[in-house]
Amino acid sequence: MKEGPWGEEEVRRWLLDRIALLTGVRPAPEDTERPMHELGVSSRDTVELVTELGELIGRDLPAGLLWRQPTVSTLVESFAGTEPIAVTGVGRAFAETSPDSGGPTPGSGRHRALLDATRAALSCGGITAGSLRDSRTGVYLGRSGSGPAAEQLSSWLELRGPMVTVDTGGAASLVAVHRAVRDLRCGATELALVVGSGVGCGVVLLKRLVEAEGDRVYAVIRGTAVRAGAEAALAEAHAVGGTDPSTVDYIACAHGPVDDFGTCHVPEQPLLVGTSRGEDAGIAALITTALALYAGRVPLPDVGEWPRYAGTRAVAGVGAEDAHVVVQEWLPAGHRARAHVFALSGPTPSVLRHRADELVDWLESPKGRAVPAADLAATLACRDHDDHRATFVASERQGVLDSLRAVADGLVHTEAASADAPAFVFSGYGSQWRAMGGRLLATEPGFRAAVEGLESVFLAQAGFSLRALLRGDHGGMDAATAHPALFGMQLALAGLWRAHGVEPAAVLGHGTGEIAAAVVTGAMAVEDGLWLVLTRARLFSAMRDGGSGAMAVVDLSEVELRELETRFPEVSVAVFSTQEQCTVSGDIAAVSALVTYLDGMGRLARMLGRVEPGSLPEVDVVLRELRYGLGALAPGLPRTKFYSSVLDDPRGGKVFDEEYWVANLRRPVRFPQAVAAALADGHRTFVEIAPHPIAGEVIARIADATGHTGVRALPTLARGSHDDFLHSVAALHAAGHPTVLGHRYPGSPALDLPRPPAALAPRTPPDAVVAELVAEHRWEERPLPEIDGVGMRSWVLITDDQPPSLARSVRLATKLTAAGDEALALPIDQIDEFPSLVGNASRFAGVVLLFANPDRHDRVHTMTATVLRRLGWLRLYLAVHGDVTTDETENSAALRGLVRALAAEHPHARLTLIDIDEESGMSVLAAELRAAFEDDEVIWRDGHRFVTSETVER
Q1: Are residues 538 and 553 in the same domain?
Q2: Phi/psi at 572 (nearest 5 deg)?
Q3: Does the structure show a pLDDT above 90 at 675?
């Protein structure tokens, strides 16, 4: 089960996301009441939906569930939510008393207490009463006998949520809590005021924990139940909340005998009990327990600090005769243990397992018990990393130990496949959610810096703060803010990855996401991209309700659709969902005719309830206004390989001008074709730049259909989940990325960890290695092929302090710049200043060493060693002039020996020797660098290119 709350609202969103992936169109809110087959979900897809849903919520669901619950709404309502509910405000007040009788004044006294307690609870939760007007806030009031009703409080506050009055005796207010929790989990209300009214009045403010980002959370309700009998209610409340009754430290009894709460406890963990009496005893017990959990002190004399057992969180129960509530402490974000990435490696799987086992023993030793998790993660990150790797994410000591034991048992192991950079995937509209950037703004400096850099642009053009929108300060998002919010979020997420040293090897996207991709790759300015996003959102909003078209999902490939063009000329493709399924649009009559025709053939074809304006012919009426504004944009060239989801040839996106962005709005979305092209070009790792992953499954399906293996689709963020970014950082490191973990942990604390073992078994070289081998190197001519489609690359030109090498660096930089690259010339004595000069070093493709006198092989070796220590993660090129390589002198042997020794002893540090004669010149050297071939030794003579070949003789 995925970490994070999976209540009814999360399941509803997940289902809508999955249907959008399967059909190409996200269902509208009214579509949740329609059978799923009418939304385009096939019977084959329903089996997959049920299986995946069961894995997500941790329950075994019957395969025929969707036959009995055919709509999204009925499916979600068929099981109870178990997500935690936050107590974010509490209030108490006492009814006014009569001086004559000494008792409470009937009527007005209780109503005044209700208002005073409600105001106190709202103030405690940081909410003004006026801000709730016309909101879906529910009122749930428990009372015994006469008194105020929920309708009265709802009317006073002008609320539009549920109004529930419970009159069941002493358990009434806890029954009201149960009803409020149930309604919050199913989305019937977004905020709940739960009232217990009697001689006094108590009010608690409840909301879903996932919506309580930034709020003060006094405690968390894990489970509730209403049953005949205290023991039955207690057992069911724990079952619903997924908690163990034996972990309860304290029970607050509202009426009823204490003996009714017969939990199972170990002798060393006694059960503390408190009691409450009176008509409002249930709500009083809940308020007291929540405040006690928040303060960490038991509300009993002579007890004081809340006892801790085995490092677990404090758990309490609030019970009455027929109702029970399980409450747990909630540590504020600033006090919660922060998650970290832990990385181990070894030259073989057995060494890796042995290192994990030794580290477990060390952590359980007196010396290791005091080590902070952050220091351990940083120390492991800064070690040398072998090919066999294990990475995991943990926030607490026990989680670290459990994961290390899993590594030692061989359950976690990855072999680093390559050090290639990933492709960034910018998915389109539909992945956004309220407060989607709140957690990253609080915890990730790289993300926060990226948002700050965009703030002035959004204030000037959009008229609102991107920071406030991503934190959720604006409330819900509407059509006017959702598109720009997603655009800004994607730019900031790309900035977060870049802050971790991850630059994309390629980019691809669709819809609004393709605009963000163009900005990230440098083909469009941020200001131009935001203008385009805002204009699209405004035009779509203006025409969304005025169109007369229709859409349908059909199981047809692109080839099959072309065969039907003459029969149905008024129907066009809107979205290619997969290689075998697409969404079509057009006039209602024409689309209906196509659906009827395909139904008769036994092919899947279903009308969709929602119509996207950009897919319909009516969009042509807004293109004139869009073209007018686009004419002022300054199109640019992408610095990174760009796979277009607009053009028939995904590799054809070179200039992003007016015509391209009009086509982006009007032409079919060809995202599967873009993914297939990226896979065909060798890309195997994809990072989705989105607040919620919606493209990963499309990538997996296309990879499976095209026979590509080893494909990874990693999310950056996911709604309702924690630490997705760290898990993807761990996955990239495990896959072989050379810098991502080093940027996460730039400095290493001096922890005295167990030293890696040199070997676990005697190393006996095979006979083929022991036998004498004679290797003869011969030169053979191999022309340099034509270079096509190489994007801009960055180079570091390292020189000695002699004028000839400085002059050559200037000529080489000129040639590289003319070819579309960029070059930084740097004397060897300034190499330590390289990080401060360039900021992001990961964008450089290689280092070129230029020497005035390569015969000084001692000087060459010294400079090469210096560069390896400082810039060893980059590919190195040693450029010399003259007959240095081909003669039989000592200097020639020293240069060739340097290259071959490095290849044998340091395979990660590639050094290529390039010998250029004066006639070939710097143009040839620039072409050789841009080609980036794997040859170790290359010479150019009179315009001819030669490389070494090795012949082994026994």
Answers
A1: no
A2: -130, 160
A3: yes
Q: How far is the first Cα of the chain from the last one, in angstroms, to the nearest whole number? A: 58
Domain-embedded: residue 729? no
Say if residues 139 and 195 touch (Cβ distance below 8 Å): yes
Do 802 and 818 fall into the same domain?
Answer: yes
Asked if 227 and 120 sit in the same domain, the reply is yes
What CATH number should be reported for the domain holding residue 638? Answer: 3.40.366.10
Residue reference for tokens 């509490």: 90
Q: Is the same domain home to 518 and 564?
A: no
Query: Which has the closest alpha carbon to 523: 384, 393, 653?
Result: 653
Same domain assignment for residues 402 and 321: no
| Residue 546 DSSP SS3 | coil
Backbone angles phi, psi at 255, to 5 degrees: 65, -175
Angle between helices 397-408 and 349-363 in degrees, nearest 10: 150
Supply φ then ψ for residue 606, to 5 degrees.
-135, 135
Determine, yes or no, domain membership for 768: no
How far are the Cα atoms of 108, 199, 789, 939 from residue 100, in angstroms, in the given order? 16, 17, 94, 111
If asked whether residues 264 and 202 sit together in one domain, one would say yes
Strand partners, 394: 340
pLDDT for residue 244: 73
Does 366 map to a domain?
A: yes
Geometric angle at alpha carbon 755, from 754 and 757, rounded to 5°: 115
The edge-to-edge listing of strands for the beta sheet with 340-346 is 340-346, 388-394, 414-415
- pTM beyond 0.70, yes or no: no
Residue 751 located in a structural domain: no
> Do 495 and 446 meet the contact criterion of CB atoms below 8 Å apart?
yes
Asked which of 116-130, 167-181, 226-240, 460-474 is least confident by mean pLDDT, the reply is 226-240
Neighbours of 746 (CB within 10 A): 10
Distance CA 798, CA 369 (A): 47
* Alpha-carbon separation of residue 216 from 211, 244, 486, 830 (angstroms): 12, 26, 27, 51
**What does the pLDDT average to over 639-643?**
93
Confidence class for position 506, pLDDT limits 50, 70, 90 = very high
Alpha-carbon separation of residue 241 from 53, 183, 260, 263, 720 (angstroms): 19, 16, 20, 16, 17
Where in the sequence is the domain holding 673, given as residue range(s)? 423-543+619-724
What pLDDT is stored for residue 782 in this prediction?
86
In this structure, are 374 and 281 located in the same domain? no
Quickly state the pLDDT bin for 884 (edges 50, 70, 90). Answer: low
307 & 388 share domain: no
Domain at 27, CATH number: 1.10.1200.10
DSSP 347: S
Q: What are phi and psi of 842, to 5 degrees?
A: -70, -15
Contacts of 855-858 with CB under 8 Å at 24 or more apart are 855/884, 855/891, 857/890, 857/891, 857/894, 857/895, 857/898
